[in-house]
Design a protein that fits this description.
The chain is α/β, with parallel strands linked by helices. The protein is built from 12 helices and 9 strands.
Length: 321
């Protein structure tokens, strides 16, 4: 009798949980963006959140919780109830963050369920021609080999994707550069424009206007093919550097064990938003692209990215205390 009573209670609880998932959302949903307002994660999340709000009839609230390379807000999302009312806007850097932040407080692969990608944006290697007058990627590599460590190349900070990009580039090209870390991408770009540093990896959407005006020179885009915003700039493999891809991506995640019914509703609403003509136009202006895909496809992509970036982070031997 006791066993039947316990089993009956578990089945009733499961049924109640399923019913609640079926009625979701019954109130506002918090989208934790673990970076400051105005950054890439925030910029891509807000238009999608607005569409999902209209689609589901409840407000999607953006909550910017920045700090420690995105790990502060991510840890908060990881500890949230798995009921669909708190989700995370994640990006590339969070896949390897636990490896370089010993106190990150989460395991990205274990603690989150992928829902949908928002956007993928490639980086380009750019130089200030007044500081470093090289016209091609081959010439850049040749100059770096001639004087190891002489070329100053900036990053958005220790442990960021742009920091790891420098390490990956050095390994692939067989060169040594002088890494200059900044406290964010904005001050790095200002110093690049001012000629305080010679080179940097910057998102194509950020530097396209400066390249067209001649203030900066793009040597290669770190993607499989040329980008519409910079049609005259070769992809890295075209410029002679094979197997060098550097793309950042943004997407939506929920705490692990969130009901599938909730994940499916969110996935469908996000995919519908990505098909909106206004969103697609905005993405093109930002040099971003996204393939409409299933939850399973996105989950496989995130697994591959986690493995890839963790290897890069390990090779770079970056640790943030």
């Amino acid at each position: 009798m006791a066993r039947r009573s316990v089993l009956g209670g578990l089945l009733a609880a499961g049924a109640a949980s399923g019913a609640r998932a079926g009625q979701w959302p019954e109130h506002a949903v918090t989208w934790i963006v673990p970076f400051p307002a105005g950054g890439g994660s925030d910029m891509f999340a807000r238009p999608i959140a607005a569409h999902v709000t209209n689609r589901l009839g409840q407000t999607m609230v953006i909550d910017n919780r920045s700090g420690a390379g995105g790990t502060v807000g991510t840890a908060v999302a990881a500890r949230a109830p798995a009921d669909g009312y708190t989700v995370l806007v994640g990006d590339t850097g969070l896949t390897y963050a636990p490896m370089i932040y010993p106190k990150a407080g989460f395991d990205f692969d274990r603690d989150f369920a992928p829902i949908s990608a928002f956007a993928r944006v490639p980086y380009a290697l750019v130089v200030n021609p007044a500081r470093l007058d090289v016209a091609t990627l081959a010439a850049f590599i040749e100059a770096a080999k001639k004087e190891p460590g002489a070329i100053d190349i900036g990053s958005a900070g220790l442990g960021t994707v742009t920091h790891l990009a420098i390490g990956l580039f050095e390994a692939r090209a067989g060169v040594r550069l002088n890494h200059v870390p900044y406290r964010g991408g904005a001050p790095m770009l200002q110093d690049l424009l001012a000629g305080q540093i010679g080179a940097a990896f910057v998102l194509v959407s950020v530097i396209a206007g400066y390249v067209k005006s001649g203030k900066l020179r793009a040597l290669a885009v770190a993607s499989r093919r040329r980008e519409a915003l910079l049609p005259d700039v070769p992809a890295a493999h075209e410029a002679g550097l094979a197997d060098f891809r550097m793309t950042t991506w943004f997407g939506l995640f929920a705490p692990a064990r969130t009901p599938d019914a909730v994940l499916d509703r969110l996935h469908g609403a996000v995919q519908e938003a990505l098909g909106d003509e206004g969103v697609k136009r905005l993405w093109r202006e930002q040099g971003a692209k996204v393939e409409l895909e299933s939850r399973a496809d996105f989950a496989r992509f995130v697994t591959r990215e986690t493995e890839r970036w963790s290897r890069i982070a390990k090779a770079a031997n970056v640790r943030m205390e």
